[in-house]
Amino acid sequence: MHTPPSTPTSPSVDVVPIRRVLVSVFDKAGLDRLAAALKAAGVRVASTGGTATALAKLGVSVDDVSAITGFPEVLDGRVKTLHPHIFAGILARSDRPDDMAVLAEHSIDRFDAVIVNLYDFQSVITTPDCTPAQAIELIDIGGPSLVRAAAKNHAFTSVVTSPAQYDSFIAALARGGTTLAERRQLAAAAFEQTATYDAVIARWMARHAGLVAEAPAAASVADVADDLPLPARVTFELERRLPLRYGENPHQSAALYAPAGTHLGLAGLKQLCGKELSYNNLLDLDAATRLAGLIQDPAAVVVKHTNPCGAASEGTVAHALMAAMSADPTSAFGSIVAVNRLFDRECAEVLCGPGLFVEVIAAPAFAKDAVEILTTRPTWKGSVRLVEVPAGDPWEATAGLELRSVAGALLAQRPDDECDDPATWRVVTSIAPPPALTQDLDFAFTLVRRLTSNAIAVCRGTSLAGAGIGQTSRVDAVRLALEKAGPKAKGGVLASDAFFPFPDSIELIARAGVAAIVQPGGSKRDAEVIAAADAAGIPMVFTARRHFRH
Fold first, then answer.
1. What's the pLDDT tens digit per position in 469-526?
2. CA–CA separation, 109 vs 129, rounded Å?
3. CATH code for 20-206?
4. Which CATH number applies to 422-542?
């Protein structure tokens, strides 16, 4: 390990002329401008592989790195620049006679600047057909090493890591060299880039390791979760994407942050029109889009205060939207709407109905005529926000983890975003639900998982009729859901996000005329609950999977 010197070096020089540079760039944007400036200034250029070829085509005389090191590129180009003749030339301190003596002894020339950008690992791993082998091959080794070395020695070496920095570097080249202040800024940007780059790789590697790891042996489904092991350490670099007027309340400052480089989920939302999004809008958008994404058929979800007050699946998105908005019209006023297909003209016509007002509409995409209608016809046209949310795995950027803050820490878990399989459910009553209710039960159990616990969902067909949310007792959640559903509960189905601890809920359900119940099961009093359902003649199925959402 390198031992730091016991005494500080002498003060750094200010302006460093650029006489010799190392150029190795993955992103060739702006290389023509850079090449012309280097050539005009008579700068000696060393380079490797594709960059050397590109510079030569632009008329720049290039010293090949292999000629400098006296060693060819090996291992399919994995080893090129990792050599003392390169790194000593970058790290030598010009004000240290002993450093200069070492360079002279070994015939090493100094580099005044390193111009390097890295393999685009982030873009590669987000392509659908990217294999782990391809991703691993795009982990840059020499590039980050060159960048870090130059950034460390910024007192004497400039480091340029982005085509966006070329113009200022070219200007410095023309006036005689970079200043110490400029080199410090370039070094700071360089360390930010390598930190971001390493964080992206660390997140991907943590998830890759989890996917290929063996899941722990479980004594039973109830004893151990069926998720893969969580990584021991996860590294994030969060960047501010969207400043917000305030948080949940006006006295709280707030912003939307996202892992650098990710553009999936709400981190990649595109607002087409309307007022700026608020903190609460984003929370509701998350709830709405995640539920809409769980429903396979054309669907619409209406959310208020992070809970669906309407949701439906129909043959078309417009019909689903009509059903969802009519489930609880009072709560739907000023709500957030999300659909899981193109938001078309017919959908826009639904929301232009009298007495309707929504804050935000989210969809994977909007038809042009739908946008025109929504931004010209309704009385609320100037305030509605239309938001496109891209498809894709939003958890890729967080190593497959859903994160939630608590005081001084983060809770992490695998997202509860996998669809349930009704084929694995078990009928526990003496009579089974009629086949015609299978889809309804599946829909109800999908909805209840996105309600705040304790949660009950009553559905009629594939439309939410009533929800009982956030109650401290399950029987109160049942009572609230049935009250919301009213006459629609009769002949409908009821889903619970967790087991019924007592048979009292079944008594209320029976009086409302519910036709079937779906719940996880797992209570010590399951036998009593089943007996109550049998006595009431209500078929009930157990899913063996709980869906709490706190």
1. 999 999 999 999 999 999 999 999 999 999 999 999 999 999 999 999 999 999 999 9
2. 44
3. 3.40.50.1380
4. 3.40.140.20
Q: Tell me which residues are annotated as active site.
A: 152, 305
Q: How long a stretch of residues is the chain?
A: 550
Report the CATH number of the 267-412 domain. Answer: 3.40.140.20
Please tell me if the domain spanning 20-206 has the same topology as the one spanning 422-542: no
Task: Please tell me the distance from the alpha carbon of residue 80 to that of residue 137, in angstroms, as a whole number.
Answer: 15
CA nearest 547: which of 494, 499, 486? 499
Q: Provide CB contacts within 8 A for 73, sequence distance 6+.
A: 48, 49, 65, 66, 79, 80
Strands annotated E in 364-480: 385-388, 402-406, 409-413, 426-427, 456-459, 464-468
Beta strand pairing status for 540-542 and 299-304?
Answer: unpaired
Report d(CA 491, CA 489) in Å as an integer: 6
- Asked whether the beta carbons of 464 and 312 are under 8 A apart, the reply is yes
pTM of the predicted protein model = 0.70
Determine if residue 544 is left, alpha or beta; phi over 0 gives left, psi from -120 to 50 gives alpha, anything else beta.
Answer: left
Structure tokens at 112: 């005044």
State the Cα–Cα distance between residues 337 and 304, nearest whole angstrom: 9
Single-letter amino acid, residue 340: N
